[in-house]
Amino acid sequence: MQINNEGYIGVTSCKGTTHLFKKDKKTMKYLFIALAAIFISGCSTKFEIDKRIEIPFAVGESEVHIKSQWWREFEIEQLNLLIEQALQNSPDMISAYERVVQASFAVSSAKSGAMPRVTTSASTNYSERKQSGSSWVESESSNLGLSMSYEFDLWGRIKNSRESAKSSLEISKYDYQTVKLSLVANIINSYLQWQGVQNKIVLTQKNYNLAKELQELTRQRYENGVATILDLKRQERVVLSLKSNLLSLENESQTLQRAINLLVASNEAVELEAVDIESIRFDLQVSNLPSNLLLRRPDVAASKEAIRVSELSVEIQKAAKFPTFSLTSALGYASSNLLAFNNPTTTTANAGLGLGYTLFDGGKIESDINIAKSRALVSLQEYRKTVLNAFKETQDAIEKLQNIEQILKLDEQSLTLLQESFALSKIRYEEGVLSYMDLLEEQRSLFGMKESIITKKIAYLSAYVELIKTLGGGWVNKNM
Hints:
By secondary structure, this protein is of the alpha+beta class. 58% of the residues lie in helices and 13% in strands. The protein is elongated. The model is unreliable at 11-16 and 37-43 (pLDDT under 50).
């Protein structure tokens, strides 16, 4: 506290803010009351949570970098068009965007709390009255008023509300990125599943044609007395079974087509073009947990920002413990004319300083503060859970991708052996050396392995998509 040469008292709080007051008895009386609250507020400890988390995973030193439009690495133009359409038309994306817009307006609304509030009012009135034995008396009046009010944010309630709104806006942006990442991953997985079914249809059709050839060969052998009627009936059952599989695959293809239509929010059926599963490539080398994982996940960023919102909520509740100071002023005109203020009969002007303080509330303020603190601790645990889940999901995705890759290599080796074995078995069967049952078993094994490899290749590509999703896609939190 300092007194200058002009007779003003300068008071500097712990926050470094200097307040000037005129030195007189009336001012000193109210200054004494306000000083205690100012210093209590300014020097109080800010509520802040320790966000450090122990990670029970081995994190590598390398970082991972993914392009923002990572799906283009598949080099499938049709897939790119589907994703672009979905990002524009998906109800989930539109809803997520509108939530960002709402949060942006909430920030503007919170900022207005730091500005003066100016209102105006106007009224005009005409009346007639008559007393007993007298004539009617006319009366006209008009009123115009202008008022202003402003709350001094000594305890940071308005500032913290504004900061809380900004954090909520950031959370809505992170949620938008999370929705976008999930939508893109779902479209790619559905598209890959559809392509897998198309490849299985081609494979089953080839196997069906082969089975028809074997059926004709078995019929000839039966007519020549080499094969039995049982062999012929068995091969006929194989042909019918493959025909049934084709119908099931067609139905599965239509179901996946409708799922893709729903994801891209298309009113018309999307025309899809089948491609050889062997031509689809995607390569991302990640052998261990990247060091920048937490910077890449929008859900982690949103969870961390939620802690800040809860911390600010505690500060907002704490501000209710202290008095509020507000400045009000008003200017009014009154006229005895209807709809006219050119000759006002009365002009009023006033200004005042208001103080409000809760003397007793039965412990409500303290309870609200404790509730806010408890919610902040809950948000910390939610953040901890999100972080641990992020590392777990990424570790699982890495191991799953490596496991499928190893299995796929072994199956491809087995397929080569089965193809050689079936070619030899067919020759031996035509020569009458190999029984029909042995040939049928070779045929089933070969077809089963080919179908299994298609399934595993789709799973391998889907595992890449899942890995990219757990890594946050191409998003990076630039605020951390």
